[in-house]
Amino acid sequence: MQPALFVFVFAYVLPRLGSHGGASPFAASHPGAISFSTILVPGLVAHPGVGFVVAHSTEDGIVVLGTEGEHRLRDGRVTGVDPLARYGPMAPAFVTRAAEMSEAPDLYVNSLVDDLDEVAAFEGLVGCHGGLGGWQDRAMLVHPTALRPPEGLVVGADAMHRVLVGWLEDLGHRQELRGKVTT
User: Fold this and answer.
1) How much is the pTM?
2) I need a surface site. Which of 26, 63, 159, 182 has the fewest CB within 10 A?
């Protein structure tokens, strides 16, 4: 199933329209008006190609919304059916990490995972790069046995960068940068 393109577009446009607190310039200048989120969020959550929507709440912090429930990441409280259950035990940590990034959008929209463990791409040429769910988030790192394996799970590009830089340093490269550059 190919979800509507507007879902993909809003993930990129939304950071320019408001702020993480949900207070947009429009809402600030029009008290009592229907907010952008009260119209958009229920429609996104109900879309058949959307698995969940992540929003920032001033009261509850980061909240994951699904069609049958919600998951508050700050305290782990789940109401109804956990929208992250189908995405594996690391999903809350992965979503928290993504939602706390300075460049994160006000609303993070993640694709569904179907019965074949496949995810729906929001746009044919981009696919699911960086999304959560399905076989795509079960990566492996193949490396020569002479290099020390990473300690524990490598989560995110920044952690993978630290592993790769560590290997370069172990091999004698980047010596002039040690202690000068944070990895």
Assistant:
1) 0.68
2) 182
- The residue extents of the domains of the chain are 5-136, 139-183
CB contact at 8 A, 74 and 62: yes
For residue range 167-180, list pLDDT tens digits in order.
Answer: 999 999 988 877 66
How many CB atoms lie under 10 A from the CB of residue 6? 14
DSSP label at 77? -
The Cα–Cα gap between 83 and 53 comes to 9
**Tokens representing residue 172 in the block:** 């004698």
Write the single-letter amino acid at 139: A
**Other CB atoms within 10 A of residue 10 CB:** 18
CA distance 133 to 119: 6
Q: Which residues of the chain have a pLDDT value below 50? A: 1-27, 30
Q: How far apart are CA 130 and CA 152, in angstroms?
A: 20
Question: Is 107 within 8 Å of 98 (Cβ atoms)?
Answer: no
